[in-house]
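hey so u asked for the seq, here:
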Amino acid sequence: MKVDIPDEVRDDIFKAEANTPAAKDRGTRIILYATLAFIGIVLSSSNAFLTTVRADAGGGASDLSSIEAIGFGWVGSNPLASFFLLNKIGGGIALISAGFGGTMVELEVS
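ran it, C-alpha cells below
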C-alpha cells in the first residue's frame, strides 16, 4: 500500500526519520548485510565449482585428488573450508546466507 505524502511535509518527515536510533546505524548494517551476501555468493559458487570438478573427474565425495590437481589442495586440509566448499550442507548454508544478506540489504534500503 503506497501512501502519498504531501510535498510540504515530506522533507520534515525524512529529516525526523534520519534522526532516529535505527536510522543512525543503517549504513553499518547495510555494509554488514552486503558483506554477508557477497561471502555467501562466493562460497556457494565455489562449492558448486568444486563439486562439478570432482564429478567431472569421476571422484566421489572423499576423493580429493581432482581438486588437488587444479591447485585446491588446501581445501581438503582445512576443516572449515572443507565444510563450506566440499559439503552440501555447507554450500546450502552459504546460499541461504547470501539470500538473507541480500534480502536484509533490500529491506534496509527501502
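Residues 26-56 form the longest helix (31 residues). Residues 33-109 form one domain.
lmk if thats what u needed
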